[in-house]
Each structure stands twice: as structure tokens, then as C-alpha cells.
From TrEMBL:
Superkingdom, natural source: Bacteria
PANTHER family xrefs: LACI-RELATED TRANSCRIPTIONAL REPRESSOR, TRANSCRIPTIONAL REGULATORY PROTEIN
One Pfam family hit: LacI
SMART domains referenced in this protein's UniProt entry, alphabetically: HTH_LACI
Species in which this protein is naturally found: Arthrobacter stackebrandtii
PROSITE patterns: HTH_LACI_2
Keyword entries, A-Z: DNA-binding, Transcription, Transcription regulation
Coiled coil: none
Residues of the HTH lacI-type domain: 19-75
Name assigned to this protein: LacI family transcriptional regulator
InterPro entries linked to this entry: HTH_LacI, LacI/GalR-like_sensor, Lambda_DNA-bd_dom_sf, Peripla_BP_I
Length: 351
């Protein structure tokens, strides 16, 4: 990001202080990140937008004594993709979808595994700002303020986050969760649990809100369990909590958690779906290979990655319409063998 500059001759910004990138952006009618890109690598911005920014900078006297940035120090043609867990199959399609789009546009992809840590994600993001022209954050664990700050410093698109006024692509759980409730209610389930994901997961909270709404609509008792790490290893604790809750069915935050639950229930002698029904989320590779095959809410994962990448490429090209764009993609239920009729002999649950 270009540095702030006090021009020769005593020119000052609108607030009476030194002229900043934001001042130039306001005059040019573009985002601060667009101004930064024009000043550091103008070849990636449309001529019309670049001309408007340069004229605004000239009017304000921003950078008047600074030579143009040499091509040798411009950011490389790379885009960083940050994911919370590279071992999670959900992110396989994200990685593939973004890489294909970026390769076609002449960019390389820099992949970073943030290990479900907001601190690691912030550190990686700080590093990537100088080595990439843009960033895609998948299921970011950053705080709302940190995400907004990052978006003001580098062209950024968030995948499955919509709380910081940044361009975003969302996998909308609403339709899939509604279908899951219709399916489970038709099988006589009246007490259904939501097995939640990480405490700081924005998408987990969104799914719980949709879950609660669906439970009220269908007059079903809703139970919330967790939070749990979205990994198979968390499935044992989640399965034990499900048994204690006496719910006859559950919707897990993701398929990995649901698969871990299936394994634990098997070792405890709890039959699926005879004793309890399990629904996953995402429909990752391998969800249909479980024992039993997993009923799950199917998400358009690779499509979401491609949409996010296209959105970022538009931002890198200076398209003002992409600065605050939000795109939502629907989900749907895929029924397999992990759901069945609620146990009539134990109307209260499986305890």
C-alpha cells in the first residue's frame, strides 16, 4: 500500500492533516484499495479508472515528489488463498476452483493453511499483502474489525463471511436446512440437535440461526450442542453429547464432524439410523462412502470458489461494482442412508 505523503507547498487533506490514500479515493470516487493498485501497479487497472485516480492525486498533490514505482518492485502476479484447514476435504474444491480461475487469468496461487487460528491467519495475511495482488479468505476466523481493516489494505474477497462490509461469496444454508427439517419431520423426529462448529465460526452461527427458524416453523424442539472443532476427531465427544441430549436426530456443522460421530456411535452400539439419524453439511468427497452413507446438505463448493475468484479478478481490474458485491449460492439436501424413522419404542430419545 502506498504511504501517506505531505506534499510540498503545504497542501493538506480535507480534514486538515496530511493527504492520504482515502482522500484520493474520495475525490476519484473509488475504493482506497483501487488507489493503492493504481499507484503501485497501474497496468492492472482500467485506463479510465487509472486516469481518474491519477487526476485526483494530482489535484490533491499526493505523491508529487515520488517517482513512479518500478516494475521490479511491483507486487507479483499472485493471489493468496488462506484456508483454516488444508486437510479438510471441503477446501479441496475451494483450492481447485480458485487455482483454475487464477491460472486462466495469468495469476499464480499462494496457498496458506491457517490451522483454524485467527492469530496465524492475521500473521499470514500481513505477510501476503506485500507478496500478492489480492487475497481470498475462506471461512476467515478474523474478527470483524480485523477483516474490515485487511480489506482496506489489499483487494480481498471473503468466502462464507458477511459481517465486515467486504466483497463476499456465501454458501446459503437456508434451503438445505429447510429440506432437512422437512425430511426429518416426515420421519417423525420431534427433538433435533444442531452440532455446532467452532465458537468463532461465522457460518456456524448463521446455520444455527437458520436451524432455529426451521425448528420453530415445523414446531420441533431444537437443541444446540458444542462448539466443536470441525474434524473427525471431535466426533466422539459430539456423539456422546448427542446421546445425552436425547435428540433422535441431528444436523452436524460439517461432514467431517458427522463422520466422526458415525464412528463413535458404532463403537457404542447405537444404530444409525434405527436409533438416531445423522445429517451432515457440505457433501464432501467420501460422504457417500461412510457406513452408513451420509445424508447431507450439499453445498456448491467449487462454484463458490470460482465466483469468489471472478469477483476478486474484477476488483483487480478496477471494476467499482465489485467493491461491495455479495453473492449467495443455495444448498440442497441429499438423502442417503444415515436418516430414518424416529425410534417409536423410545419417543424421548436414545438415552
Amino acid at each position: 500500500m502506498a504511504s501517506e505523503y505531505v506534499p510540498q507547498g503545504g497542501r493538506v487533506g480535507p480534514e486538515g492533516g496530511k493527504v492520504t490514500l482515502r482522500d484520493v479515493a474520495n475525490v476519484a470516487g473509488v475504493a482506497t484499495s483501487t488507489v493503492s493498485r493504481v499507484l503501485s501497479n497501474p497496468g492492472r487497472i482500467s485506463p479510465k479508472t487509472a486516469a481518474a485516480v491519477m487526476e485526483a492525486a494530482r489535484q490533491l498533490g499526493y505523491g508529487a515528489d515520488k517517482p513512479p514505482v518500478a516494475a521490479s518492485v511491483a507486487r507479483p502476479r499472485a493471489v493468496a488463498l488462506l484456508v483454516p484447514d488444508i486437510a479438510n476435504p471441503f477446501y479441496f474444491d475451494i483450492i481447485h476452483g480458485t487455482q483454475e480461475q487464477l491460472k486462466a487469468a495469468g495469476y499464480i496461487q499462494l496457498l496458506v493453511n491457517t490451522e483454524e487460528s485467527a492469530d496465524l491467519e492475521q500473521a499470514a495475511l500481513n505477510s501476503m499483502m506485500s507478496s500478492s495482488q489480492g487475497v481470498i479468505l475462506a471461512a476467515s476466523r478474523l474478527s470483524t474489525d480485523s477483516l474490515a481493516m485487511a480489506a482496506s489494505q489489499v483487494p480481498l474477497v471473503a468466502l462464507n463471511r458477511n459481517d465486515a462490509d467486504v466483497p463476499a461469496v456465501l454458501i446459503d444454508p437456508s434451503f438445505g436446512v429447510q429440506q432437512a427439517f422437512q425430511h426429518l419431520v416426515s420421519l417423525d423426529h420431534r427433538r433435533i440437535a444442531y452440532v455446532s462448529g467452532p465458537a468463532h465460526s461465522w457460518s456456524s452461527q448463521w446455520r444455527w440461526q437458520v436451524f432455529e427458524e426451521a425448528a420453530r416453523e415445523h414446531q420441533v424442539e431444537a437443541v444446540r450442542l458444542g462448539p466443536y472443532s470441525p474434524k473427525q476427531t471431535s466426533g466422539a465427544a459430539a456423539a456422546d453429547a448427542l446421546i445425552t441430549s436425547r435428540a433422535t436426530a441431528c444436523l452436524a456443522f460439517n461432514d467431517l464432524l458427522a463422520i466422526g460421530m458415525l464412528r463413535r456411535l458404532l463403537t457404542r452400539g447405537v444404530k444409525v439410523p434405527e436409533d438416531v439419524s445423522i445429517v451432515g453439511f457440505d457433501d464432501i468427497f467420501g460422504a457417500d462412502f461412510c457406513n452408513p452413507p451420509l445424508t447431507t446438505i450439499t453445498a456448491p463448493i467449487e462454484q463458490a470458489a470460482r465466483v469468489a475468484t471472478s469477483m476478486l479478478l474484477k476488483r483487480l481490474g478496477g471494476d467499482p461494482a465489485a467493491e461491495r458485491q455479495v453473492s449467495q449460492l443455495p444448498t440442497y439436501l441429499t438423502v442417503r442412508e444415515s436418516t430414518g424413522v424416529a425410534p417409536s419404542a423410545r419417543a424421548g430419545g436414545i438415552g
